[in-house]
């Protein structure tokens, strides 16, 4: 059972990337009516509603970049290309997307205060992914040294 | 400041080719090339021992310390 899970772990991850891409697509397509409904429920003004919507749309751009980077990263891992410069770049891209989304969410607090929670989560995620990228960079340096030890 | 590898010189003295030496010491010709061109970052004692054995020389014949920076006593 454990071997079966291990061998399909990357496939599962790729499946979830596709799932999140579909959810993001649904959000992009349906965010205008959803936000309109939510704004009427909360009694938001027109400016707040537009700001709320703008935050979602701008963050979704970072979401697409992030999902694409993760898809490519998982593809590289499936091809057994683990400690490479490209993967480090992809991890830094993911981290940057999270950090930018966090900044947008902080700015969005003007329109909707609970965006602060999303900003904290995205910022924390950016930090974690950045550290994983640093670990990959160190591992790549060590691999290079090992490859050049005769 | 670097450690220079004089493997070429010793191989020429012993009249031995890269492919033959690589086979004798049990490393790939590609790795021997890395060693010869000075791209290697480290040399295992076992490799150095095999090289010294096959080329009948001392580690100092293969490795040379080139110092182009002033040391403690030269300031």
Give a quick summary of the entry.
The complex is a heterodimer of chains A (150) and B (75). Chain A has 150 residues and is mostly helical.
What this model shows, in words?
The complex is a heterodimer of chains A (150) and B (75). Chain A is mainly α and 150 residues long. Chain A contains 4 helices and no strands. In chain A, helix 1 (2-42) packs antiparallel against helix 2, helix 2 (46-78) runs antiparallel to helix 3 (85-108) and helix 3 (85-108) packs antiparallel against helix 4 (115-147). In chain A, 19% of the residues are buried. Helix content of chain A is 87%, strand content 0%. Chain A is elongated and about 70 Å long. The two termini of chain B are 16 Å apart. Chain B has one domain (2-66): 434 Repressor (Amino-terminal Domain). The mean pLDDT of chain B is 89. In chain B, helix 2 (18-25) packs across helix 3. Chain B is mainly alpha-helical and 75 residues long. The interface between A and B is small, with 5 and 12 residues.
Notable traits:
heterodimer; A: 150 residues; mainly alpha; 4 helices; B: 75 residues; 5 helices
Please state the average pLDDT score of chain B.
89
Return the CATH topology of chain B. Answer: 434 Repressor (Amino-terminal Domain)
Question: What are the segments of chain B in which pLDDT stays under 50 over at least 5 consecutive residues?
Answer: none
Helical stretch count of chain B? Answer: 5
| Helix-strand pattern of chain A | HHHH
The biggest sheet of chain A amounts to: none
Helix-strand sequence of chain B: EHHHHHE
The largest inter-chain interface, given as chain pair and residues per side, is: A-B, 5 and 12 residues
Head-to-tail CA distance between termini of chain B: 16 Å
- Low-confidence runs of chain A (pLDDT<50, min 5 residues)? none
What topology emerges from the helices and strands here?
The complex is a heterodimer of chains A (150) and B (75).
Chain A: H1 2-42, H2 46-78, H3 85-108, H4 115-147
Chain B: E1 2-5, H1 7-14, H2 18-25, H3 29-36, H4 45-55, H5 59-62, E2 63-66
Antiparallel strand pairs in B: 1-2
Helix pairs in contact in B: 2-3
């Amino acid at each position: 059972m454990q071997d079966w899970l291990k061998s399909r772990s990357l496939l599962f991850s790729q499946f979830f990337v596709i799932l999140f891409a579909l959810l993001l697509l649904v959000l992009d397509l349906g965010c205008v009516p959803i936000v309109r409904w939510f704004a009427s429920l909360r009694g938001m003004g027109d400016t707040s509603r537009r700001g709320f919507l703008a935050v979602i749309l701008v963050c979704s751009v970072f979401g697409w970049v992030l999902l694409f980077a993760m898809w490519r990263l998982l593809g590289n891992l499936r091809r057994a290309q683990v400690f490479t410069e490209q993967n480090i770049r992809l991890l830094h891209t993911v981290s940057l997307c999270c950090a930018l989304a966090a900044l947008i969410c902080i700015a969005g607090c003007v329109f909707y205060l609970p965006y602060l929670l999303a900003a904290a989560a995205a910022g924390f995620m950016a930090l974690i992914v950045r550290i994983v990228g640093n670990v990959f960079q160190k591992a790549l340096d060590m691999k290079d040294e090992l490859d050049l030890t005769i | 400041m670097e450690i220079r590898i004089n493997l070429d010189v010793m191989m020429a003295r012993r009249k031995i080719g890269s492919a033959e030496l690589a086979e004798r010491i049990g490393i790939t010709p590609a790795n021997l090339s890395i060693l010869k061109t000075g791209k290697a970052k480290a040399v295992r004692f076992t490799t150095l021992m095999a090289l010294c054995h096959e080329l009948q020389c001392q580690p100092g014949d293969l490795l040379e310390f080139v110092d182009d920076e002033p040391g403690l006593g030269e300031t």
